[in-house]
Task: structure prediction
Amino acid sequence: MSAPALLVERRDRILTLTINRPEKRNALRMDLLDALGAALAAHATDASLRIAVITASGDRCFAAGGDLDELAAIRSTEDAEAMSRRGRRALDQVRAFPLPVVAALNGLALGGGAELAMACDLRIAAATAEIGFLQGQLGVTTAWGGGIDLIAAVGNRRALDLLISARRLAADEALSIGLFDRVCANDEALDACLMAFLRPYVDRSRQVVAGFKALTAAHRRELHQTLSSVEQSRFVAAWTHDDHWAAVEHAAAARAKK
Result:
C-alpha cells in the first residue's frame, strides 16, 4: 500500500499538513490540493489549535510545481479554467483558514509550489530553500492567486519583475525583500527553527490569533476579489496559446538531454 500524498498531524496546538511525494519532487496533483483544502476546512473549528503549518517531505523540494503528467492532458479553454478554479479553491482554504498558516519551506518552492507558499500567511525557510515563479518560462501566468499574493507581499514593481523574469530567489534574497519571514541558520534544522518561530503564536489565546488573522484575511480577500478574474482569464488565454505548448516541448526536450 502506497503512502498517502498528504500527512495530517495535530499536536501541541499545531496542525501540520505535510506534502508527501518526495519521489515526485512533491509535485502538486489536483487531488492533493483538494485534500489539503479539505483538511484545513475539517479543522477550521478545532478550538485546541492556534496555528497551521504546511510543509513537505524530504530536503530538496517543498513543491516543484504542478504534476506535469496531469497538466499535459489539460488542453481546452474549459479544462484550463476548471483547473485554475480547482487549484484556487484549495488555496483559498489556506488564505481563509481562521488561524495563521505558516509555510515551512524545506527546499524548492517553484511555480505552483510558489503559489502555495504565498497563499500561506507566513513563510519560514531552510537555508537552502529557494522560491521562484517560473510560470513565465513555460509561457503561462499564475493560475491560483499566487500573482496577487506576490503583489501584496512585495508591491507592483517588484512583483512584475519577479513574474516576468521567472528567476529563482535564494532564501536570503527572499528574506531581504519580504517574501520570507525567517531563514534558518546554515547549521539549524528546519524543525527547530520553525518551533522557535511558532512559540509566541502557540502561547497566545485563540481569540487573539483568530482575531488578527480575521483582520488580515479580510484585507487579502478584498484584493483577490478585485484581481482574481483578471488573473484567471489571462492564465486561461496563456495556457491555451501555441507559445505555451512550444515552451513545454522545449522544456521536455531539455530535460531529456540531461
